[in-house]
Design goal:
flavoprotein, eight-stranded antiparallel sheet, six-stranded antiparallel sheet, alpha+beta, PAC, 20 helices, 4 domains
């Protein structure tokens, strides 16, 4: 009977007095504990025909209990709840205690005894207060109440969530102003906003850094609102604290990343423009490398930069140009963990930070040809975004080096002649020599206006029909008969694995290709200043079954045949060069002529008058070159 409060002069714990009072209540009143009726007043005993042995609630109350049992379980301890049982035209008031519940049945919603009404009314205010108190204590956010009528507006209440958030116990904070959570990094502007809102009796929400009892920081979203009485006077301030540390740190991290990205873009944009100008304007590779190093080192963010090239003979990377301190001794061993060695080994950027110093290395590679590595030193970290930008910068530098090396091949005889043997049948001459059982000898190549390279080969040992039949089996390449003679044919090969064009893009001249019985002997001329090993490795990677037969270095000696040919070729337009080349290789200057001007014109895709105009102009330039008038 500890759930029943008579409030009629008897103490709450006087069970006998409470029972006597309830006997006079005309509405049925029962007490239930774990499904058993532990008490029933006279009205309940009569209404439900309760005997001394019939005390099971399910049996006594029937269908009523099915609904009431669920409602009792859902009712918070210490509160009251009212339920309508429509099927029985009853209203039941439930008072939930710690060990059971007291049920008062009101018939038709009327007829409640004055005593029962007084019991319900006396409990309702207390129940409302219990619900509010419990809500404050169990709220998932920190709640505080302060009293502005007392000096310094101290706290008079904090809930459990506040204690857990701050680490302070109730007794440690009550009587103190809430500012004790503030510290040296708390936002003064946010604090001033709260003070102004309190002075003006208005609500406010701010975010500021607070400090727990153990000194750790957390971001606190604080909302303060005035509480007024019936006359509108502010009696208290209620505060709500929400730990937003995770969200705030994410926001701050995003702001930092945005600022860093903007800084990188602003800084690197000018760097890329300047380096691009250097690449376009330098006259040789050494000048390009010096200017690139100087421009990168001019950035405040970088302490130094150097460009090095691998030396296979010594197993080191040798510095070609540098600004600031380069590697000790001017070299880096290729078998060490230095970022420059790692970048060349993996062909990917390599970044290393040791004792606050970052070294970032980026391979200088273009079309699979290695031209060295650029290494940057900086006292700050280099993130993924900056790595991507600097990698693009390195590719631009490698492109510039490639252009300089390609131009050197046309103007110098200081080359390394490399002879290779290739058996990969993706190479058209190899496949044709095997399929038609013939011999192909490379003559020259012409770069067409559509950026396609057409290579001309003289074929012996097979008829035009046999060559055409073999060409039909080529996967991607096209082979066309240009001139047919009794013992040989001139064929034009385009598309497919274009070895000549591919090598030309890498600064390498194809000197000769001789293919027979499914094997091709290829002679290349590579500038001595280029990375010969890298070029050879690229060919080996591209074509299976490639073997190196010989290396030979040649020194310049006056104007060589290559220099003369390069000078003449520079004077001719593509069409003039093509007309002269096809006329010579097609036997047009022989007698009797095996081909006509009409046929050669068709092979170039031009009219016969246009072909003859190009041929005459080319012949005139050739004569001037020979007789000193060019």
């Amino acid at each position: 009977m500890d759930d029943v409060d008579t409030e009629r002069g008897s103490p709450v714990d006087d069970a006998a007095a409470a029972a006597r009072a309830l006997e006079h209540v005309v509405d049925p009143v029962i007490a239930v504990t774990e499904g058993t009726i532990t008490y029933a007043n006279e009205a309940a005993r009569d209404a439900f025909e309760l005997g001394d042995a019939d005390r099971e609630a399910a049996t006594a109350l029937g269908t009523r209990w099915t609904h009431l049992a669920t409602v009792i379980d859902e009712t918070t301890v210490g509160t009251a709840r009212q339920v309508d049982l429509a099927d029985h035209r009853e209203r039941v008031r439930i008072h939930r205690g710690t060990s059971g519940a007291t049920l008062t049945f009101e018939r038709d919603g009327t007829g409640a005894d004055a005593t029962a009404e007084s019991v319900g009314d006396s409990r309702s205010g207390a129940s409302d207060r219990l619900v509010k108190d419990r809500a404050l204590e169990e709220a998932p956010v920190g709640i505080t109440i302060s009293d502005p009528d007392r000096e310094d507006n101290p706290l008079v209440y904090v809930n459990e969530a506040y204690e857990e958030m701050t680490g302070y116990e109730f007794d440690e904070v009550v009587g103190r102003n809430c500012r004790f959570l503030q510290g040296e990094d708390s936002d003064e502007a946010a604090i001033a906003d709260m003070a102004a809102a309190i002075d003006e009796d208005r609500p406010v929400t701010v975010e500021l850094k607070n400090y727990r009892k153990d000194g750790t920081e957390f971001w606190n979203e604080v909302t303060i609102a005035p509480v007024r009485d019936e006359d509108g006077r502010v009696t208290n301030y209620v505060g709500f604290q929400n730990d937003i540390t995770a969200r705030k740190e994410a926001e701050l991290a995003l702001e930092r990343q945005t600022e860093e990205l903007q800084y990188i873009l602003d800084r690197v944009e000018g760097l890329i423009q300047d380096v691009t100008a250097v690449v376009a304007g330098s006259t040789d590779r050494s000048e390009l490398e010096r200017e690139v190093c100087a421009r990168i080192a001019a950035e405040d963010a970088y302490d130094g930069v150097w460009i090095g090239e691998r030396n296979p003979a010594t197993g080191t990377i040798e510095v070609r140009s540098s600004v600031g301190d380069g590697p000790d001794g001017g070299t880096v061993a290729t078998d060490t963990g230095h970022p420059a060695a790692e970048a060349l080994a993996t062909t990917d950027p390599a970044v290393e930070t040791v004792d606050g110093l970052t070294r970032a290395a980026f391979p200088l590679s273009y079309n699979g040809i290695e031209y060295g590595v650029v290494t940057i030193r900086t006292p700050r970290a280099i993130d993924d975004r900056e790595t991507v930008i600097l990698s693009a910068l390195a590719r631009a530098v490698a492109s510039g080096v490639n252009a300089r090396e390609t131009s050197r091949v046309l103007a110098t005889d200081a080359v390394v002649a490399v002879e290779l043997e290739v058996t990969d049948r993706t190479l058209a001459p190899v496949a044709l020599s095997a399929a038609a059982d013939c011999r192909l000898e490379y003559s020259r190549s012409v770069h067409r206006t559509d950026d396609e390279t057409a290579s001309l080969f003289t074929v012996t040992g097979a008829s035009a029909d046999e060559i055409t039949a073999a060409a039909d089996e080529l996967a991607d390449a096209d082979c066309r008969i240009v001139v047919e003679r009794d013992e040989e044919c001139l064929v034009e090969v385009t598309g497919g694995e274009d070895l000549v064009g591919w090598l030309s893009e890498r600064g390498v001249r194809t000197k000769a290709i001789e293919a027979e019985a499914g094997r091709a002997r290829v002679t290349l001329e590579i500038p001595r200043s280029s990375n010969v090993r890298s070029v050879v490795e690229a060919v080996e990677d591209r074509y299976d079954g490639t073997d190196v037969r010989s290396f030979q270095q040649r020194e310049p000696d006056g104007e060589t045949r290559q220099e003369f040919a390069a000078r003449l070729e520079e004077a001719l337009t593509d069409r003039q060069f093509g007309a002269l080349q096809r006329a010579y290789l097609g036997g047009y200057f022989e007698w009797p002529r095996p081909t006509t001007g009409e046929e050669l014109a068709q092979s170039m895709g031009v009219s016969r008058p246009t072909f003859h105009e190009h041929l005459r102009t080319a012949e005139a330039k050739l004569c001037r070159a020979f007789f000193g008038d060019a």
